[in-house]
Amino acid sequence: MESMPVNWEALDSLVIDFAKSENLFEDSSSSSSSPSSSSYKSRILIRQIRRQIEIGQIDAGIDLLRLHAPSILEDRRLLFRLQKQKFVELLRKGTACDRDSAMECLRTALAPCALDAYPEAYEEFKHVLLTFIFDKEDLNSPVADEWSEKRRHDIAGLLSSILRSHLHAYDPVFSMTLRYLISIHKGFCLCQGVSSPISDLTERLLLEERDPPAIPQESLYEAPPFDEVDIQALAHAVELTRQGAVDSLRFAKGDLFQAFQNELCRKKLDVAMLDELVHEYCVYRGIVDVGVAQVPVIQSPSLSSKTYQTDQGFSSSRDCSSIDMDFETSKHSDGETSVSNVDVQGGLEFTTDAASTQGPDVELRFSHEATGNRDDCSTSGTHMSGNKGRRLPRSRSRATGERIRRKRWRGRTERLETVVDVPSVEICRQEVAASALDLGGNTLEEEQVSIKHSALENVENVEDHKYEIVLEMRELASKGMAAEVVEEVNAMDPNFFVQNPSLLFQLKQVEFLKLVNSGDHAGALKVACSHLGPLASSNPSLLKPLKETLLALLRPNEDALAKGIPISVLATSLQVAMGRRLGVEEPQLMKIMRATIHTHNEWFKFQMCKDRFEGLLKIDCLKEIDMPLLGDAASKTFADASTPGSSQITISSSSRMPEDGNSPTPVSSRDIICDETAILKVMEFLALPRADAIHLLVQYNGNAETVIQQIFA
After folding, report:
1. What gap in Å lies between CA 580 and CA 578, rounded to an integer?
2. Least crowded by CB within 10 Å, which of 232, 456, 556, 612?
3. What is the reported pTM?
4. By residue range, what is the domain housing residue 655?
């Protein structure tokens, strides 16, 4: 399967926003009033409520709902399901005290709620009474489903779907984009009968199960009919039936994009794997530090793999200038989205989890291995040897400056409440509520979820410097410093460009165009004669780009640099090639994005329409790589995707043949214009995918009535 170029700078932005939104970076300060911080706290709240329901602590979940989202409990249907599950959980415990509590729940909460929840509620109430008679171990009993722990997960998922919309606590854009692209990738491969080169990753990353859909309120059933364009767009984007799409729009009060986000967030990702992929990508792209300029870890044998706070640990490193500079930079770059990691007295949290110390920075691992030698904050403890370590002092100082500006990886930190099983249900509920509700406090126990960093699992020594070498070269290339790149790469590995002549040609092409742009035509011709000509003569495929490059000499008034390969593409190509040469494989996330962006492009060609949601998910930015080589690239803005209405026109090209082998009529030799109304009519009446509907319309000159008559004839 082919792949498609990706705007890695746009992906960097999405990944950084994701990591900040999920607090995966080490932050020196936070703003509790910022929108992203509020959304993060809401997502944590939803996870806590979900966790309480899944472990059977229904009262604790209800208490959290009453405090943070009391309007949710006004839905009698949902309240009835919660009270019924609470009754079952009390019986499940099996003690005499809990059985009495179940009887009390039955009389005071469940029975009254069953009277007006929904028409079938009272029958369900009478049915659940059978749990008094049939044991939970009896898998053939008529109430085996009521005893099943799957009921917990169904209710927890339903609550999550409702709360996500109610609190506007949607997952970060990158997380939703990944779900969407992988779903389309799977659908495309299945439709075309081709194998996916990333199936081993996508099958593990995007799980099959979804949360149950949120149920619209009764009052919304009288909503006016929705535009069929919106219904079909939503149904095919997130794999719903038509009725499912209508229900989703009812719940979202007709807001197509809110309904889309609701449905997309129902799909489950493997969060641990996602964090691992993001961390690997951040290390490779130089977003997080893999070097040694880090805040040291305070090693404590009694507190390994726990969160540890100390004022002394922070003060002992205050005279280390590189650490202070990194700390200040983190303040300015991440303060607006972080959850506070420093208390008012200046105490800093450190983690000494053995797994996480192998992560994004070498200093953490060294501090773990050499406990007690932390008096010296020097960052010059490791050196490269041999040819791989040859670097000019200029580039080494530049790399140090870049490393100081990088972020520090922390990993996912969840605040988990401790539920103590005591005889008194009321005491248990009060303790859980008191410990779980204060989402912004510093009194909660934190569990550091260690992320295994696949990119660095085999890095045990000073070979970590190969990341710095690759990042230095990419940084030089991204600034258009082609001559410097060639010089330093040849100093490190004289055989690199022998094996990568195309890269050398592109770098010399940049050097040539820069000289032309500055008016130094003699210098440009010298570069062409010394490098571009010999490379093209030994590689015939380079002759055409050489001719096009030389044309720049004839257009002195044009910006020659804007005609060449985008500088970001060249810099990334150099990084990938050098990384492989040094044993640093490109991140798996880059492979996923290349493949899924390609299939997204092909899928909507096949559907013969524009993706209405690509602007919302920034997919259009990921595809936009036609930027000037230098200069104005950063200032180029991306246009939002237009949202086509019911008058949209689709043109079916004559070069496309129908893919249905049962259709005998060939495609006309002329273009057939298919009205969007006709397409939607065929899709609705025949329950067909968009592409199949268009192909049928092409065969019958765009007449929807004729298509329907022929199918039903």
Report:
1. 5
2. 556
3. 0.70
4. 649-712
